[in-house]
Amino acid sequence: MLADALFLAALPGVAVFLLVAAVELEELLVVLGEVVGILGQLVGDGAAELPAVFLDVLGGGALGGGLGSRRRFGGRGGSGFRGHDAS
Question: What distance separates the 2 farthest-apart alpha carbons in the chain?
Fold first, then answer.
């Protein structure tokens, strides 16, 4: 009888432990999923970074000139389009 009483008294503690462990596991999986998503974005963007470096030369990035240079097209940058309200 005493063993049955001790066993029955321990069951709620086991249930609480299992619930807490399940919640902590779920939180860990959410964090792991976020990390995998961020790493996937970084790896996915890596394929575009090398061509972007070469395209930066066309926009006058590091070299200060290039095909899209402000000095060559009016000195102010942009397309020169003023919109419909311009005088």
Answer: 99
Neighbours of 77 (CB within 10 A): 12
Q: Would the pTM count as exceeding 0.90?
A: no
Q: What are phi and psi of 23, to 5 degrees?
A: -65, -45
Instruction: Tell me how far CA of residue 26 lies from CA of 20, 23, 37, 65, in angstroms.
Output: 10, 5, 16, 53
Rounded to the nearest angstrom, the gap between the alpha carbon of residue 46 and the centroid of all alpha carbons in its chain is 13
pLDDT digits (tens, 9 = 90+) for 11-48: 899 999 999 999 999 999 999 999 998 888 877 766 66
Yes or no: say if 80 and 73 are a contact pair by the CB < 8 Å rule.
yes
d(CA 32, CA 59): 39
